[in-house]
Amino acid sequence: MNDIKELKVLSVNISKEKGTIKQPEESITLNEYGVADDAHAGVWHRQVSLLAKESVDKFSKIAGREINYGEFAENITTEGFELYNTSPLDKLISSKVELEVTQIGKECHGSACAIFHEVGNCVMPKEGIFARVVKPGKVIPGDIFTYRPRVFSFQVITLSDRASRGDYEDRSGPRIIEIINKHFEKSPRQLEIEHTIIPDEEDNLRILLERAAAKNVDVMITTGGTGIGQRDITVETVKPLLDKEIPGIMEAIRIKYGSQKPNALLSRGVAGLMNNTLVYTLPGSVKAVNEYMTEILKTLEHLIYMREGLDAH
Q: Helices marked H in 79-224 — which ranges?
């Protein structure tokens, strides 16, 4: 991938108390709780803090003095690119350890924080990042981390006997893809989107659902087959495969648009989690796709973070 970059570790730092400046060490050991002997270690998502020298240098100019490694309470000081351009679930991988980004920035406690009191400001709330340990090991200055952005994978399925035969052009599936791309166009996220057109056949849909679950596809969106016709089999096929249903999304959509146009209340679409794959079943019209996707995208990334155990509140 073109976005794979390398980071050099300049310093590794530890503090015994929260909210205090960290002191450089010859090495740090990462375990299942974070940095051994560091005050921030624990069973949570902010186990390891990282800050780029690029951010430190910017603040040094503003502060009018040199900032020492660890002064902003970062466990690992890096050089290579600005870390705040990463996203949650991206990976930082060296030959010995693996980290997963969990949060960009944090709340600043202002004058209540010892760092703010001693330094006069703090760059961590805006440009520092936090990670959890995926693979434990030792980190020393000079180590090289490879940055691997998390790719969001989507499977879009159009269910239509006529479109699958080529009797008419499928417009709802391509519209879903267009909306997804538009939503993420200003995001650093990379996307993989696969689109399939199938007839309204339960066996065909089940095969694609089970394949998506086995591959851990992030999101599967179907369009078509949510009505009450004899060939409308999408909901009956999807619902038994869901491990956890998320009824509020579809209920809210039906109420919102059904209050304006009662026919919108007739869709039986469902949403839920199938293994690690989020599944949404949409009606087959472009108008309905526009309405449903508008609401689904409001919570999509939050649901992905929840699924991965991240506190994105």
A: 114-119, 124-127, 161-165, 172-184, 202-214
